[in-house]
Amino acid sequence: MEDEGNEKKDIKLAEFKLRDTSVLVIKKTTFDGEDRIDFRVWMNSPKYKGPTKQGFVLTMDKIDDFIKTVETMKEKLKGAGKKSK
């Protein structure tokens, strides 16, 4: 490959077990020279081992908004647990 020396490697940031055969892998990746965060479900089953189509990618300019959204969700869930119907 021509650009092999300039190729940036993915950096695994976190892994979250979803089921016995699947995990959510969060990686910093680079695509077309732009850094991104990839949230991808990976399978490890007898039929298939590797990434799936399940997941999403955020550009770096969206990370702070995403974190704020998750924090807001967490607060809403704390409040929802205290309410009774």
What does this molecule look like?
The model has no long low-confidence stretch (mean pLDDT 88). This protein starts with 10 loop residues before the first strand and ends with a helix. The protein has a four-stranded antiparallel sheet with strand order 1-2-3-4, with no helix packed on it. The chain has one helix at 63-82, and strands at 11-19, 22-31, 34-44, 49-59. It has one domain (8-82): Transcriptional Co-activator pc4, Chain A, CATH 2.30.31.10. Helices cover 24% and strands 48% of the residues. With 85 residues, it is an alpha+beta fold.
Topology, please?
Elements: E1 11-19, E2 22-31, E3 34-44, E4 49-59, H1 63-82
Antiparallel strand pairs: 1-2, 2-3, 3-4
In short:
By secondary structure, this protein is α+β, with helices and mostly antiparallel strands. Helices cover 24% and strands 48% of the residues.
Q: Mean pLDDT, rounded to whole units?
A: 88
**CATH architectural label:** Roll
Strand content: over 45%
Q: Could you give a short account of the major beta sheet?
A: 4 strands, antiparallel
Oligomer: single chain
CATH fold category name: Transcriptional Co-activator pc4, Chain A
CATH class: Mainly Beta
Overall body shape: flat
By DSSP, the count of extended strands is: 4
Summarize the amount of helix as a percent range: 10-25%
- In the sheet with the most strands, the strands line up as 1-2-3-4
